[in-house]
Specification:
Two copies of one chain form a homodimer.
Chain A (H helix, E strand, L loop, with lengths): L2 H10 L8 E2 L1 H8 L3 H14 L2 E3 L4 E3 L4 H25 L2 H19 L6 H21 L3 H10 L2 H9 L3 H19 L3 H21 L16
Helix pairs in contact in A: 1-3, 4-6, 4-9, 4-10, 5-6, 5-9, 6-8, 8-10, 9-10
The structure holds a DNA duplex (30 and 30 nucleotides).
DNA sequence: AATTAACGCTTTGTATACAAACAGTCAATG
DNA sequence: CATTGACTGTTTGTATACAAAGCGTTAATT
């Protein structure tokens, strides 16, 4: 794995906590690389907004309540639109992909063990596949490109950390509603259901924002 | 000016044409720098989508008709939303800023000389200030952040290259309509007017897409 | 005692050297 | 004649060395 993805994952999973300073030398040692590739990775992360520039170096970005409100407003707008367009332009193949992702999501939820990192990673991953399948079904690759930067994965990951079994199942049901709307080309319903779904995710993030600053990464988690 | 901005400007103004390969060594000579800072700049431009990765190195991104359609769809969605929110949340100060930008825009249009690069640059610049003033009036800095990446400046620049005096004045009138709607907190009107305005810009780009591949950068333009 | 100047240490920015990967060419072989 | 293989030159990827800029601490002066 290259420097960019390594650092990104570390931020997503909370290994590098919000506010933590990321010195080049430090990262170079951590990844056993020289500073050159590290610097390039940092530049990219900076342009995505995952780290914020300091007077010297960067630190892991910290998101305030207000940030989260605003980011999710943006996300509902874009992903709601994507869902509505997907309903209009989806092919049979798109539908199969969405179904498949959601089936895997369902399986992962059944296997779910509270607060187990690998279990969460799995769920987050299939959830992401579901959303991405819809976004790519809208036939506007530029939406996909930009949404992948709007969706701040650390926040999504945190929201799943706090889901309980019931909430996961509810989220699964909403996924099914969205799928059905897209399948039956009901674009407005798809938009509204997606919008509501994302707002629920936002509420989850906001509800648990203060509880801990860091999700503890367990030993057995690091491969 | 740093490597990133230099290359970006060169792409915007057509000095580096779409499809042109940008080798590190070449850019290093051009900017009289070593490859190290060049590479960092390229990584950033890549993550913004201004250049596309090749098997080896990158080339200046070429936008197809379809790309332009899709990008502008996205832009209307976001900037239409921004205008509607600006209408709801604008302060008196915001209005003054928008007015001021538009006044300068008007002056620049009066001074306009067809196909003169500096004249166009000036107009593009004040137009941008107008749009940015509205976006920042919507009080969601994340929208600003992402819109600045959605709005592909090379395309905007090209569209202005082809505007004639009449079209510029019409665009000015639409600006005034948008301003009025924001001032009177008519959010839906602001959204619709902005959306229409951007679609007009898109039509302009599409209409002249084939005419030339490159806008010739005049000697006296390079400072 | 407080303010500032200067020094040294840490960290980032840039250049250069070297290693690795890729593309194109030419020759050998079926 | 086409296809494959090795060779060569070019370009990117990484490491390291050095330059420049920031920050903290200490010492000197008021």
């Amino acid at each position: 794995m290259d420097a960019y993805n390594y650092i990104k994952e570390a931020i997503i999973h909370g290994k590098y906590e919000p506010g933590m300073r990321l010195g080049e030398e430090f990262l170079a040692k951590e990844l056993k690389l020289s500073r050159t590739p590290i610097r390039e990775a940092i530049k990219q992360l900076e342009s995505e907004g995952l780290v914020t520039p300091l007077k010297r170096g960067v630190s892991v970005r910290h998101f305030t309540r207000e940030d989260i409100q605003q980011i999710y407003d943006l996300r509902t707008l874009l992903e709601g639109y994507a869902a509505s367009q997907a309903a209009l332009h989806r092919t049979e193949e798109d539908i199969q992909k969405i179904k498949k992702a959601n089936a895997r999501y369902e399986e992962a939820i059944e296997r779910y063990q509270e607060k187990d990192m690998n279990s969460i990673k799995e769920i987050v991953n299939f959830n992401q596949q579901f959303h991405e399948a819809i976004i790519s079904a809208c036939k506007n690759p530029h939406i996909y490109f930009h949404l992948s930067k709007v969706v701040v994965v650390p926040l999504v990951f945190r929201s799943f950390y706090w889901y309980n079994s019931f909430e996961l199942k509810r989220s699964l049901e909403v996924h099914k509603t969205i799928l059905l709307a897209i399948q039956s080309q009901d674009s407005e319903r798809a938009r509204v259901a997606m919008t509501e779904h994302i707002y629920q995710g936002r509420d989850q993030v906001l509800a648990h924002l203060d509880e801990i600053k860091k999700i503890h990464v367990l030993k057995e988690d690091s491969q």
